[in-house]
Amino acid sequence: MTLKQVQGDINLIMHFELIKKYAYAVKIVFTILIAFIVLDVLFPLPGKKEFSKEIHAKDGTLLSAYLTTDDKWRLRTELEEVSPELIKAVLEKEDSWFYWHPGINPVSIVRAIYRNVTNGEIQVGASTITMQVARMLEPKKRTYLNKLAEIFRAVQLEIKYSKKEILGMYLSLLPFGGNIEGVKSASYIYFNRPPDKLSLAQSIMLAVIPNDPNTLRLDRSNKEIIKNRNYWINKFKQQRIFPSADLNDALDEPVEKKRYAVPLLAPHFSYYLKDNLKGDILNTTLDLSIQQTAENILLQNIKRVFYKGITNGAVLVIDNKNSSVVAYCGSADFYDEGSFGQVNGITAIRSPGSTLKAALYAYAFDDGNLTPQMKFADIPTDFHGYQPENYDLKFYGNVSAEFALVNSLNIPAVRLLVQVGLNNFINFLEGCGFNQIQKQKSKLGLSLILGGCGTNLQELTQIFTAFAREGKMYPLHFVQDEEEQKGEQIFSVSSSYLIANILSGTSRSDIADLSNYSTLPKFAWKTGTSYGKRDAWAIGFNPNYTIGVWMGNFNGVGSPNLSGAEVAVPLLFDLFNTIDYNSDVKWFEVPEKLITREVCSESGLISTLYCNSVIHDFAIKDKSHNEVCNIHKPVYVNLDETVQYCTACLPSSDYKKSVYTVYEPELSVWLLQNKYNDQRPPAHNPDCTAKFAEDGPKILSPSEDYEYFLEKDSEQEILLMAASDSRVKTHYWYVNEKFVKKSKPGEKVFFIPNEKVLKITCLDDKGRDGRVKVSVKYY
Ligand SMILES: [Zn+2]
Ligand SMILES: [Zn+2]
Description:
Blueprint: H1 3-42, E1 54-56, E2 62-65, E3 73-74, H2 84-94, H3 106-119, H4 129-137, H5 144-160, H6 163-173, E4 180-181, H7 183-191, H8 200-208, H9 222-239, H10 244-252, H11 267-276, E5 281-283, H12 288-305, E6 312-319, E7 324-329, H13 357-367, E8 375-378, E9 397-400, H14 401-406, H15 410-420, H16 422-431, H17 435-440, H18 457-468, E10 472-473, E11 488-489, H19 493-503, E12 524-529, E13 535-541, E14 545-552, H20 564-579, E15 594-600, E16 614-620, E17 632-638, E18 644-645, E19 655-661, H21 665-673, E20 698-701, E21 707-710, E22 718-723, E23 731-735, E24 738-743, E25 749-751, E26 757-764, E27 769-778
Parallel strand pairs: 1-5, 3-4, 21-27
Antiparallel strand pairs: 1-2, 6-7, 6-14, 8-9, 10-11, 12-13, 13-14, 15-16, 17-18, 17-19, 20-22, 22-25, 23-24, 23-26, 26-27
Helix pairs in contact: 2-8, 4-5, 4-6, 8-9, 9-10, 12-20, 13-15, 13-19
Bound molecules: zinc ion (ZN) (2 copies).
One zinc ion is lined by residues 600, 602-603, 607, 611, 629, 631-632.
């Protein structure tokens, strides 16, 4: 054996010894680790505590907070929301090694054990912040066993959460007496301010109270609190934790003996979100300054109309950049029980009056069958028994779509609804999120477009945002950082532009007194007044905002003085004038697909060489119809224009060709009756024997399949009226094949029915006829 070998053996033996030693330590560590893993699986950390729901404005202001299900004010606290002084005071006071230990502080445990052994009592001092969190999550009696459990929990917490999260939990769960938990709750209830706006004295107080929360109640034992506060202030002074001058000021700070209510700002908005959105902290899009402006303006406007018997209103303001809700006033005064202030006027189902007309016209522009200058007959019309009237009970004759929309005429709107198809339009509205309309679907009729359906301010305002956003409707945003959802193209860009263009004109009957609004930004708006004068609406938009306004009474009582134009429009004007005051709003640009073309001024259709005046109209490329004017026609007449000829009876001389306006018979009759300057052609040659290819008389009353409900033996009469073209002189009326009366075209005649089914025939002097069948029920 060489020396080298011996040396090697010794090395080997020593190596073994070392391994043996290590193995022992490794075994211990390993056992502890296994034990921990097993315990961790058997006793997982309890779930986080439920926090109070908080609603915050866009600028972070707490709008409202709500009790948890166990009736606690437990507002979740993030470190960023708390004044650094408060965090510093808490750490210094409770656990200055917090950021350095693994949940337990061995030094203080050893110290505590020593003290417990020497004094024979259980001391508190050994708890780290992490251990205190463990105890607050699972409150237990103070025994040695529970202390061990707490240590185990503390390690679990440290493994699962960051230091920041643990400190956040601690600050959120600290008890402050009664049902107040966490520094944020305490900060609002004791000092009426968020925890980042606390003074040094207040911060130190909030660090002190949890030591004995049931005794140290700010509204009861202020003396005790001041004593405790000052004890710590002096201690911090010795330790030089805070600047000495600040601590001296803190010593002098008086303490109010008061508790504040948790905030409840924008109450309808807050409750709406509380009930409809998940999550404990909701950072909303509400702009507090716009909200408060809107609240004030709404209240002022209610005062203005209160004497008219109108007690409430609602306002919804949407930012058109991203369809976010910036102001939401569900009623004029949430706390006014007399006017049912707690009813939310933004979600309440009401009749929309005429507001949906804007959507109908936009829909029809896209449909291709309508252009702004196209003409409609605004004359008494019977739509299968439905005979709408205009708001002012007048009729305007031959009017353009633009005029009809601006002045909210009812008959053209119903006519348009018939044209686009009631069901098509209902399906369209359903797709735009009109829930009540979807529910009522099967029961809705043509009156839908005049308000015969249920909607709410939110749905109506939302559909108007599409006009401001190139025809796309986006879901309304209530919460920040939500992913921008995809908008739905409900109107074309061109059609949206047309509506904006038409409804922003100044020549309208529903305009408020403009002298008060010299700085008003440009915007478009539509009004509405529901049946029975129960609801006044005005919904406006420009590139910046869409604002919806409702006024009325929550008890459903109407007011003879209520109208969208007189009551709601001034409110809408006030809102735009304040919220969008002096804004450099750049109006919508004319879309590429929108072209202008020349149309006949009297028909609104593409002009022919017979049309005597032309105007410009918009048309949507590849979409709008290309119909040519059908009312200006050349007609053969005698030289003094008193007799009309057809090719069959045209004489060989003494005739000429003149252009006349030939309206449809109904309109022609109405124009004549209302003494309009009618350029109809003269009567047809009485000696003409030619057969007429055109239709016979058109019966205007009664309408086909109409059901009359008449009182028995009351001798109530039924109106008979028919229109014919200009060649017809006489109508002959028959009921169930029996001759009744003779009349002129357009003349009103009456007869008393005595049968249940009436087949009514109108024969003209050219031998053509028109027929309708109606039924009569007697009661
Ligand atoms: Zn024409
Ligand atoms: Zn003829």
